[in-house]
Amino acid sequence: MTSRSIDATPGAPVLFATRIALTAADGARAALMRQICRFRGLRPLIVDPRRRLIALQLAALLAASLLALRLPLVSLWLGAALFGVPHVIAGVRTVAIRRRVSQVTLIAAALGGLVGIAQLAGAGDGALRAYVVLFAVAIAWEIRRARRDPLLTAAALAALGVTAAAAFASPQLAVLVLAHLHGLASLATFAILARRRRLPAWPLVIGAMALGALAVSGALDGAMAATLYAPRGAARSIVAEAVGSALPHASAALFRRALFLYALGQSLHFAVWLKLLPEVDRPATVPKPFRRAFLDFAADFKAWALPLLLLAGGAIGIMLVGGGLAREVYFALTYFHVGLEGAALAGIALGRRAQEQHRKDLALPESHPVASAPALDVQVAA
Amino acid sequence: MRAWPRFIVPLLVVGIAACVLPATAIANTSHHHIGGGSGGLDPNADCLRWGYITVDGTVLDAAASPDSSADASPDGAADAADPADAGNDADAGGVDAAAPPDGGSTPAGGAVLVCLEHATLFGCDCAAARTHGPASTLAAAVVSAVLLGFALVRRRSARRRRSRP
Question: Can you tell me the distance from the alpha carbon of A169 to that of A160, in angstroms, rounded to the nearest whole number?
């Protein structure tokens, strides 16, 4: 474990700095946990995964709903800047590495990335139609791969075909619907996977449904902000995103409600991919150290681990100061993940194989042994 | 064989730069959150809602018919009258006649399409100077070249280190 020196390791300075930072973060978190455990009422939040998951869901709901009510445009700005690229990486890790979507879905996602480049070059509705086709193919393949009852499969494929045809005919409307469905899909994925591990997902599901019903009925209108603030540098992109959350020419009230639902869904889906689903997937009952999380990440992504971490960190800075252009590039280049996660949800919801594999994974003490981490274990052990 | 990961970061930078450059050059013709460029010069790009103002001064939400003053939306009228809703001094307030980004129907009977509500902006447009003109192209090219060169130098150094007895 200690046979290699830091100097001879690729990316050694970055790894060394990472090791120092992670060690410091682990120390700080351990001290914080010790303080929390001194209070009998708070101790279960550390040692009981069920209660911790409930607390996390309630915290996510509270933060997301407050931001969506009072500062929806700021919520969209900070959400994409801070969590955008990290949540895409976390989503790919969850659905493509740990759960193995089909090769067809992966190819569709890769082609979706190329369509994103075309979108940046001004492809317009042609790019939107290409997304519709790619997403439909990926979802259809996952439905077929699930090998459920032929009637169920045929019905699901028929429904998908009709939906895809409608989306192809009206791509702008499809983008609007997808914007809202994308958030809902992450909640559904979380609910299904938490239920399979017999962990509670009801706070998020019931909370999101209740907030949605209140918003649609107009009960929250009085609590919504009259003035919508947006950062000047990214205003053009954020306003375009906000306008896209409602039908064209919606009234002020309908626009506010649609914007609230969209901002709420966006915030919750960031929470799902970055915190709640990793909590569900983690076999241990207590939070794992940051260093261990780093090693697991390295084991999953191998040679891509360090570049992806740098990309995630760099993207946060670029999107905070880079204005609307950085946001537009981010949205275009990562739109493929909407279809990838949709296809993964279809596979998770329908797939018996996936369910069995998930049970097997849970039976193992660690699904990703540290020994498979390339070189990084040497750094931490040294 | 194991040297290729060293090129991932520079290649990512070059790839992203290659995507950013055309994005800076095109106008923002598609206002939806899917992305696709933000280099347009539309002064009403921060407009959240559009509506019609008729010749007699009645303000209608765009959802209402411009031909019928009976359909006037109280929300739209309130938004136009309330300066707090209309945005800040620099970017909003008053009536900005312009076409909506998604192309509204042609107003009839002298009605003019206007922005009913702007976003209230804060902070500075710090990226504006960097994202326009050839300077950004040059900067991206320089960064990409430096990173690629750095990767090549590191690769040679590592090879020399490995070949030492």
Answer: 14
